[in-house]
């Protein structure tokens, strides 16, 4: 009986090298194709802002590519698994390894170790690169691809209520009493919820209480008149603390920042199940790559000349894509409280790990 989990060192390195080259090739193909399609859809909006040109297009690509890599890396690992194992099967290398006494688990071990290393790198890449790129891109899109405000954070497109009145802002900069809102629109409403006055201003500074609008354009709904005021103070019930807690973007915060935001919201009595599910998914998401060799393993075994290699490859692909469907569905359930956050993030991973292991043992072991 073979008790070693890995095959020989030479075979382990051979399989790992074969696997990682295919992961990189598939990932490059997916990212390039998707980036071109995405840029075709966004280039019109980017160039619509006066002064934007080729440099801004390349800047958008530099911010978007990390998001595409993070999203489609697990898909790339799945496709690379099927391509690698199907090729090994087609060339009778799997039969040779099994004839030498290797089990199915030993054949898959180098691939799973490689996928684990990819998962760790993916986690670090998401935390250090993707979160910052997402925050910058959100801030840039909030100003319609114009100049990004200095010290712009992840918060954009703010929608705040002060009793019946509404305060909207495209973006913000600064913290505490030094906070400044950009692209501000204020709606004053009556007791029936009807808008009676609108104020628009480029900026709003916090006065404690209220927000000072410089040279706002006032539109009176009843008189249908537009006037320009020197200054105006609005929304005394909205504070910088409320704005800070009003919108937390999990994609734009690393795992430490997100944990701090969750604690702050929880102390304020706010619902945090959506953010907690996103926090756990920051770990389970990257580590889903480790699961892909197990789900695609069905493509490695069976006789290639029997004509079932394509069917096996399709089954492996179906298992992998079913995982992503269940993962998104569970995360959506966790967002509105249907599942506990921990279950929403990890249940699909554990379920499909058991499914993949069951299929492997029943068919090959």
From TrEMBL:
One of its GO terms (biological process) is transmembrane transport. It is a multi-pass membrane protein. Keywords: Cell membrane, Membrane, Transmembrane, Transmembrane helix. The keyword Cell membrane applies. GO terms for cellular component: ATP-binding cassette (ABC) transporter complex. The keyword Membrane applies. It is found in: Cell membrane. Pfam families: LptF_LptG. InterPro entries: LptG, LptG/LptF_permease. The chain crosses the membrane at residues 12-37, 68-86, 107-125, 309-326, 338-361. This is Lipopolysaccharide export system permease protein.
């Amino acid at each position: 009986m073979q008790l070693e989990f890995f095959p020989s060192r030479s075979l382990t390195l051979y399989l790992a090298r074969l696997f990682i080259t295919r992961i990189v090739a598939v990932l490059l193909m997916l990212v390039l194709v998707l980036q071109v399609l995405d840029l075709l859809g966004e280039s019109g909006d980017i160039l619509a802002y006066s002064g934007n040109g080729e440099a801004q297009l390349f800047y958008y690509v530099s911010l978007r590519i990390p998001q595409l890599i993070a999203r489609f890396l697990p898909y790339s690992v799945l496709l690379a698994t099927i391509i690698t194992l199907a090729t090994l099967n087609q060339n009778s290398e799997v039969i040779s390894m099994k004839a030498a006494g290797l089990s199915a688990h030993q054949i898959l071990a180098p691939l799973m170790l490689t996928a684990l290393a990819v998962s760790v790198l993916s986690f670090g890449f998401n935390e250090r690169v993707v979160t910052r790129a997402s925050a910058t891109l959100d801030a840039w899109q909030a100003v319609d691809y114009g100049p990004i405000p200095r010290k712009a954070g992840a918060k954009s497109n703010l929608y705040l209520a002060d009793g019946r009145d509404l305060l909207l802002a495209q973006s913000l900069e600064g913290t505490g009493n030094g906070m400044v809102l950009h692209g501000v629109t204020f709606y004053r409403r009556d007791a029936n919820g009807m808008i009676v006055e609108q104020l628009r201003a480029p900026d709003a500074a916090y006065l404690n209480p209220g927000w000072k609008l410089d040279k706002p354009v006032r539109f009176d709904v009843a008189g249908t008149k537009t006037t320009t005021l020197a200054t105006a103070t609005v929304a005394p019930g909205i504070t910088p603390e409320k704005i800070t807690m009003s919108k937390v973007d999990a994609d734009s915060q690393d795992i430490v920042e997100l944990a701090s935001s969750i604690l702050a919201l929880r102390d304020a009595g706010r619902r945090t199940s959506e953010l907690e599910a996103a926090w756990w998914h920051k770990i389970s998401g990257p580590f889903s790559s480790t699961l892909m060799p197990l789900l695609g393993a069905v493509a490695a075994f069976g006789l290639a000349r029997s004509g079932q290699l394509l069917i096996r490859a399709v089954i492996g692909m179906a298992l992998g894509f079913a995982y992503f469907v269940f993962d998104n569905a569970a995360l959506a359930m966790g967002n509105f409280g249907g599942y506990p956050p921990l279950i929403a993030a990890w249940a699909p991973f554990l379920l499909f790990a058991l499914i993949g292991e069951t299929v492997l043992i029943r068919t090959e072991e």
